[in-house]
Amino acid sequence: PTLARAAARANVGYVAQKFSLYGMLTVRENLEFFGGAYGLPRQKIKERIKEVLSRFGLVGAEDRMAGDLPGGYKQRLSMAAALLHEPKILFLDEPTSGIDPPARRIFWRQITALAAKGTTVIITTHFMNEAEYCDRIMIQDQGKMLILGTPEEVRNRGGKNLTMNEAFIAIVENSRREEEL
């Protein structure tokens, strides 16, 4: 079981909705810690830190305490830590919650680039317009899967000419009505 867990950890990255890195460590110290936790060799950690600092716009913030960073920077640091070991699968829990629109746009560009390079990205979101970026969408309500399909399939299930948000509401409301019968 221990080897299986280590193998899984090597292939999976995770970014929590709430900042969950170490606020009393610097940006660099957080990245060094997570590099070690993922089992990267010391030299590889140094190389990857340099890459992710640049990629996520954290150059110049390496020596700042993570807990003192603004929200957008914390989110970028979380992404950098989750991607330090180049996982095959990345889980993102409400990744754009609390960040401003320009940071949100940059974030989605990074995510679509990751997906284009073959990383599987699984996202939870309440921002249905952002779900449009995904190849497949699953809508669930009260633990029950209501639909799994492409954005177009989801919109069509909701009704004619609906936005993703309108389709989401229609699908959930229809399901709840059916349960009441």
Low-confidence regions:
none
How much helix is in the residues? Answer: 40-55%
What is the approximate shape?
elongated
Under CATH at level 1, the class of the largest domain stands as Alpha Beta
Biggest beta sheet attributes:
3 strands, parallel
Summed up, the domain count is 2
Query: How does CATH name the architecture of the largest domain?
Result: 3-Layer(aba) Sandwich
- In percent terms, what proportion of residues is strand? 5-15%
Strand order, sheet with most strands: 1-2-3
Q: Count of helices?
A: 8
The CATH superfamily title of the largest domain: P-loop containing nucleotide triphosphate hydrolases
Q: Name the structural class.
A: alpha/beta
GO molecular function: ATP binding; ATP hydrolysis activity
Keywords: ATP-binding, Nucleotide-binding
Domain ABC transporter: 4-167
Pfam family, one: ABC_tran
Q: Which key features would you list for this structure?
A:
2 domains, ABC transporter ATP-binding protein, alpha/beta, single chain, 5 strands, 181 residues, 51% helix, ATP hydrolysis activity, Rossmann fold, 8 helices, elongated, 3-stranded parallel β-sheet, nucleotide-binding
Describe this structure in words.
This protein is of the alpha/beta class. It has two domains: 2-124, Rossmann fold; 137-180, no CATH class. The protein contains eight helices and five strands, in the order H-E-H-H-H-E-H-E-H-E-E-H-H. A three-stranded parallel beta sheet has the order 1-2-3. A hairpin with a 2-residue loop joins strand 4 and strand 5 (144-149). The protein is elongated, with a radius of gyration of 19 Å. The mean pLDDT is 90.
